[in-house]
Amino acid sequence: MAGAAADRVVDGPTPKHTQLRAILRRMVERELPPGSAIPSERELAERYDVSRLTVRTAIGKLVDEGLLSRVRGKGTFTAARRMELQLYLMSFTADMRRRGLVPTTRILGATREIPPAAASSALGLGGADEALGIRRVRLADGVPLAVERGWYHPGAVPGLLDLDLTGSLYAQLAERYDLRFDHAWQTVWAESADRETARLLNIRSSSPLLVFRRISSVRGEPVEDMTSWYRGDQYQVTMKLDRNSPDSGPLPEHGGRS
């Protein structure tokens, strides 16, 4: 009887949309595999004898939490399992192909200009020195997953902006310059998507993002300062922690937000 009561929406001090959200959460977590469609708003309203507004509010909360996702013209689905973000030096293109997905890239801009002070410092440039800047949206199977903003040392990769920026930069850097990153510092933090980033990633403003700033070097010389904004509903990070960590040296002064 207790289980049956838990799957009903009743009058009382707890708002009906909160009760329905708990019911839908149990449905998502226990019954429906990732990518499954949930019943329509009309069906849920009839099943639990509540208004469409109550259903819409409950679903909206679960979308904000990343448990559900709306697909325009198709319905609402349980969120796909989050992909593990790799904590080693691998290109987005290679990572997606390894997962059996088709990577594509949309170019937002490619310029030669004076970068922000943090990027200048990270790349060892003077305050008036220009860097090569690339901004891209990375997609897998047509789904936008990340927005990237990268700054590159022009002395290390002259002609970078003439490359095919829709492909793997790492592969082209290896082929054209015989350049392979062998060391990087990476800093991770959380942000809420601003309106522009949300538009590019096809998510709602204020949706959670995982932000990675990686400063990559070759033989001790910094070449790339890359910041990537990943969709929080698509990615997670798992790290192995040992009791005794080897001494890896001091943290770089240029680590953190750019």
TrEMBL record:
The keyword Transcription applies. Residues 14-81 form the HTH gntR-type domain. Keywords: DNA-binding, Transcription, Transcription regulation. The lineage of its organism: Bacteria, Bacillati, Actinomycetota, Actinomycetes, Pseudonocardiales. Gene3D superfamilies: Chorismate lyase-like, Winged helix-like DNA-binding domain superfamily/Winged helix DNA-binding domain. One of its GO terms (biological process) is negative regulation of DNA-templated transcription. The keyword Kinase does not apply. GO terms for molecular function: DNA binding; DNA-binding transcription factor activity. This is GntR family transcriptional regulator.
